[in-house]
Known about the structure:
The chain is built from one helix and no strands. The chain is mainly alpha-helical and 72 residues long. The radius of gyration is 21 Å and the shape is elongated.
Amino acid sequence: MSAESGESKKAQVIPLKGNKCPICKKQASYEFRPFCSKRCADLDLGRWLDGAYRLPTNEAPGEAEAGAEDED
Ligand SMILES: [Zn+2]
């Protein structure tokens, strides 16, 4: 792609000023914002999932309460 032909100040990549990766505190990357890399994004996602597992799901109350779902 040949950008920067005549148009300047247009379609510029937005610099993530002050946006730091919450995982490693490095400069965040636009592609993986607010993280700096996929690695950190995955890390955070992992945390989320880990936390989500502990939270009660939206299942019907009274059914999988005791976690006896494998009682087929
Ligand atoms: Zn990071």
